[in-house]
Amino acid sequence: MTVRLARFFAALGCVTIALAVPLPVAAEGGIVPGAVNRASLAVEARYEVRLALSMATYRLSAAETIEIVNRSGSPIDRLDLNTVLARLGGLQITAASVDGQPVTPSISDQTIRLPLGGVLPDGAGATIRLSFRARFGTRLDGSRWLFTAAGGTFAAYRWLPWISAARPFDRPNHGDPFVTASSPSVRLTVTCDRVTRISTNLRRTSVSADRKTQVFEGSNVRDLNLVADTRFSVASRWVGDTQVHVFARTAAARSLLLGQAARSLARLEALLGPYPWPTLSVAQTAGGFGVESPGAIWIPRGVSGGNLSWLVAHEIAHQWFYGLTGNDQARQPFADEAPGDFLARYVTGSFRASRCATARLDRSIYAYSAGCYFEIVYVQGGRLLLDVRKRVGSTAFFRALRSYLDAHRFGLGSTRELIASLDEADPRDLARLWEPRFPSLLP
Ligand SMILES: [Zn+2]
Questions:
Q1: Measuring CA to CA, how many Å separate 261 from each of 184, 228, 304, 345?
Q2: pLDDT recorded at residue 4
Q3: For 210, which of 166, 238, 335, 377 is 20 to 30 Å away at the CA?
Q4: pTM above the 0.85 mark?
Q5: Is 116 helix (H, G, I), strand (E, B) or coil?
Q6: What pLDDT, on a 0 to 100 scale, did the predictor assign at position 22?
Q7: What single-letter DSSP state applies at residue 375?
Q8: d(CA 283, CA 324)
Q9: For residues 382 and 340, what is the distance between their CA atoms, to the nearest angstrom?
């Protein structure tokens, strides 16, 4: 993402709190004739979504409106929208239009390529409407846990078509094949055929009288996910000015997760600065992996003991390293997974040696084996950060992490910029010292 857009989103963060500056409004009708064969992540996008969820038939249908303003500095003529439904949910697009004119999107891998029907100049706006439907699977293997109704827990990760850079979905490990832009405004209305509790990464703002329609709103989030289960109950606790909600089936699970989430959140806020959203939702899923979303985490049932405390802390650490400051998770997993692992082990006291041979840390998720992706990028990456912390001390080390986070607030950082922040704090020349681990990034 351009520095300009990062600053723009940073400014929006202040606006959200202060409401002192008028919000930019999408200027509809900005499309002009022509073609440039260009999409961009640097598009300001406000999402308004109506979702119908049928737990009886395992189907969803949705109508999505995206108000966009091109902030990329150059014209675009296409949006690249990411949705896992294209790979896991038998996605069917039923209607698509730009400023009321029908357009014909195509689907490539997990990316919807939506032509704008002309060129959108820099600074101009348009209104996109997209309707679609999909069907939940019931399996958890491979990547299927990302969109599944296994065991009666409906879990949908990155289901909403969202401005992204196109990345291949298939990879040899559990890496996150995504890079998406933060949105200043998301509003989701869910109507369900049953009364059910729904965990999302947004804040619930209203519930209908029959309790089947719920409205959720949020800002400065870079994805949207939900977990719905008619057997969920909710336990809540305030941590500072953040309300933590745990959605789980049993009182024991709610109590355990609430305690661990509250502890991790308080520790991490003390180290990294204020948590950026009003709520943190913790949902217990049927299986698969733990995963993060800005304002929410998923923790699979069956994780216990030290693994659970590490996992909860790791996914909450991603609220800063991914949620607040994003990165290309597919091409530079070090930038969010190494800090995520370091922080989780730091607050839970669980550092350990890697079980794979020392290896490069600058590769994409597509280049690591299933057996060693975690051991290299997470464990070895986390130990590299531990080495800096030991060398420079906690004060300088966490100041360097906060400086990286602040510089890319609601924008995108990178492995190179993270290392540059640490290098400023470390008397050694980290770029030179770490060159063998990051040969493609460092001199
Ligand atoms: Zn992670």
A1: 26, 20, 14, 14
A2: 39
A3: 238
A4: yes
A5: strand
A6: 42
A7: I
A8: 20
A9: 8
Pairing of strands 154-157, 43-54: unpaired
Q: Which residues partner with 45 through β-bridges?
A: 68
Specify the pairing of strand 242-248 against strand 279-285: parallel
**Residue 307 CA, ligand 1 centroid: distance in Å:** 13
86 CA distance to ligand 1 middle (Å):
23
Residue type, 142: G
Domain spans of the chain, in order of start: 1-228
pLDDT at 23: 45
Q: Of 373, 385, 369, 367, which Cα lies nearest the Cα of 317?
A: 385
Distance (Å) from CA 65 to ligand 1 centroid: 30
Distance CA 140, CA 90 (A): 16
Contacts of 142 (CB under 8 A, 6+ apart): none
- C-beta neighbour count of 271 within 10 angstroms: 16
- Write the CA distances from 227 to 18, 79, 154, 435, integer angstroms: 31, 27, 5, 42
- Please give the distance, rounded to the nearest whole angstrom, from the Cα atom of residue 42 to the centre of ligand 1: 25
CA of 321 to the centre of ligand 1 (A): 9
CA of 341 to the centre of ligand 1 (A): 7
Distances in Å between the Cα of 388 and the Cα atoms of 172, 421, 424 are 30, 11, 11
Give the CATH number of domain 1-228; options: 3.40.630.30, 2.60.40.1730, 3.30.43.10, 3.20.20.80.
Answer: 2.60.40.1730
- Decide: 401 and 361 in contact? Cβ < 8 Å: no
- DSSP letter string, 252-320: HHHHHHHHHHHHHHHHHHHHH---SSSEEEEEEESSS--EEETTEEEEETT--HHHHHHHHHHHHHTTT
pLDDT per position as a tens digit, 22-78: 444 445 679 999 999 999 999 999 999 999 999 999 999 999 999 999 999 999 999
Q: Which of 421, 379, 437 is nearest to 272 (CA)?
A: 421
**Angle CA(194)–CA(199)–CA(205) in degrees, nearest 5?**
85
Angstrom distance (rounded) from CA 11 to CA 71? 14
- For ligand 1, the distance from its centroid to the CA atom of residue 261, given in whole angstroms, is 15
